[in-house]
Amino acid sequence: MKSLTHQRGSVLYVIFGVMALIVGFALYSISQKAKGPEQALNTQTKQANTQYMQWYPQARQLVDFNLITHEQQPMTNADLQGHWTLAFVGYTFCPDICPTTLAELGRAFPEIAEIPSQHPVQVWFLSVDPKRDTPQRLKEYVTFFNEEFIASTGEHKELYPLVRSMGMMYSMSDDTSKPNYLVDHSGSVVVINPDGHVIGRFKPQHAPGQIAISDTAQILADLPAIIGG
Description:
229 residues, alpha+beta, Glutaredoxin, 2 domains, 8-stranded mixed β-sheet, 5 helices, 10 strands
């Protein structure tokens, strides 16, 4: 009798456990369905209130990456969580686009930091020239523009898929055995949300006689609608 009672108790325990799992899954599904349209509506509202950012059709999930920062600390996807991130791909030996873009972002950053948002904004300079851009050089370079900026780099096996997942590109167009080789790279400023997903970019503005860079006035105009709420 004790054995039979024990078996019945075990069966009831399993049944209750399965029922709890089913109920839990159902509640989760309902919450996700309710959350999906809400998020989509929120994104549509933000898109309607921006003029300059090129929104991606869907948020892009970045590949997993392992980099080294200018402070010689590891950097992974987790470092993008809980922040809005303005990311720029380049290299410290870049003769024009990189220093000009970082200088403009440095001047605009005090205003950017004051935009009301649940999550702070960080600026991330991703070097795609690991041969020359050591952490020490990155630190000297990026802190010249703003001490709060983050710079990092890594091996090309990390950088290529990461940059592609951002919707960007770079290529080593010159012989890297030469001291002053150039690197081709995208010039957009990419926007990454607090979940670590890329949602869009500010593309360079082309004007005769001027360096084609992302316009910080346009970034400042659109950011309140993007990061607010």
